[in-house]
Design goal:
The chain has helices spanning about 5-10, 30-50, 50-65, 105-110, 175-205, 215-225, 230-235, 250-280, 290-295, 315-325, and strands spanning about 15-20, 75-80, 85-90, 95-100, 120-125, 130-135, 155, 210-215, 235, 285, 300-305, 325-330, 340-345. It is an alpha+beta fold.
Length: about 375
């Protein structure tokens, strides 16, 4: 994924203090445990020379409850005089860390790129829809401002919604048929209004996932009203209802399960794309030395590394990738076929580009 918001921190002169913490508060003891873990990290940073007033600012940030529930984390990057970045993370870092050095520490943050998934959730009924946007910079799909403004709730304005006579009886004959036709027409027009907004939001925000839940009939009408490309992207999730909180319970669990399946599939696709490019068209290189050379020449379109198996030079490789506007993606530790745990998909190659054939590389068991 592209990470342009990190580039300014890389271009800022050091020293830089980097803090990556699990800030989950899902049980009564979590706050006290977080305070204790932070106290240890603060002591280490004090010994490393981080100013006390800066540590006070960081402490206030990491110990204040965030707006989101469930498991999550926080990353802060700061100079000795100001916080450059304070970001709530969609999941906790795999390893907590706090250090002060000439460059920001990137690995604990960038290991989480698989989970930086944006979602547009649409919950429909026959009158309209509620829309929720979740983005990497706003990991909550249920809390807080999501930049949708007036688009967060849509009512189509067509109010013949129920196939029952206002007096309690059921219309018969041509009157009944005409009434039912008006009801069906209201549903369809409301679906058209929702679809128009959804199509615009997809263009403006480009979410990774398009989730749909709610009334079954309204879901079908909305899918029919969407354009073909958008309709093909829809992932249906059962259990949602307009105006009902979904911080906890079966619907929240279903959202989490659906996102996990999406992340796993995207991880498989990325690993397969790298392996295929290695075997077929030479559009990638693998191994730390080869990737470093490609980065120096500005050839890298996307840096790929395997969590837990990346080389000791990974921090330098990550910095160089971001400074040359390359995307960065982490693969989970069971990914195979990535030489030395790091590879690069290329923008271009020429006769001086290192060989991309995994089989031709020797000296490392992970190359085979």
């Amino acid at each position: 994924m592209k990470l342009p918001w990190l580039k300014s921190a890389l271009e800022t002169p050091g020293p830089i203090t980097s803090v990556h913490l699990d800030t989950t508060r899902t049980d009564p003891h979590a706050a006290a445990e977080l305070e204790a873990r932070w106290a240890r990290r603060r002591s280490d940073l004090t010994a490393a020379g981080t100013p006390g007033d800066l540590l006070d600012q960081i402490e206030e940030s990491v110990l204040s409850p965030s707006a989101i529930g469930g498991r999550h984390g926080r990353t802060l990057l700061a100079t000795d005089t100001e916080i450059l970045m304070d970001r709530v993370l969609p999941v906790p870092p795999l390893q907590e860390s706090a250090q002060r050095g000439e460059h920001p520490q990137l690995l604990p943050l960038l290991q989480l790129t698989p989970f930086a998934v944006s979602q547009l959730l649409i919950i429909v009924d026959r009158a309209g829809a509620d829309l929720h946007l979740r983005a990497p910079e706003n990991p909550s799909i249920a809390h807080g401002a999501n930049d949708l403004g007036e688009d967060a709730s849509i009512d189509g304005g067509h109010d013949e919604l129920h196939k029952a006579h206002a007096g309690g009886g059921t219309p018969h004959g041509w009157r009944g048929s005409n009434f039912e036709a008006r009801v069906e027409d209201s549903w369809e027009r409301n679906a058209d209004a929702v679809a128009s907004t959804v199509e615009r939001l997809l263009r403006e925000h480009s979410p990774d996932m398009l989730l749909l839940s709610g009334d079954v009939r309204a879901m079908g009408l909305l899918k029919d009203a969407l354009g073909r490309e958008s309709r093909d992207r829809v992932i249906e999730v059962s259990g949602g209802a307009r105006g009902v909180a979904f911080d906890h319970g079966p619907f929240r669990d279903e959202l989490v399960r659906t996102a996990e399946e999406f992340v796993a599939a995207r991880q498989c696709d990325l690993a397969a794309r790298f392996r295929e490019s290695q075997a077929r068209d030479g559009a990638s290189v693998g191994g730390s030395a080869e990737v470093a050379q490609a980065l120096d020449r500005g050839q890298v379109e996307e840096l790929v590394f395997v969590t837990g198996h990346a080389p000791s030079t990974i921090e330098a490789l990550l910095r160089q990738a971001l400074l040359t506007d390359a995307a960065v993606s982490a693969l989970q530790e069971d990914a195979e076929g990535i030489p030395e745990g790091v590879g690069a998909l290329l923008r271009w190659r020429d006769e001086t580009t290192p060989s991309n054939s995994i089989g031709s590389m020797t000296g490392d068991a992970r190359r085979e």
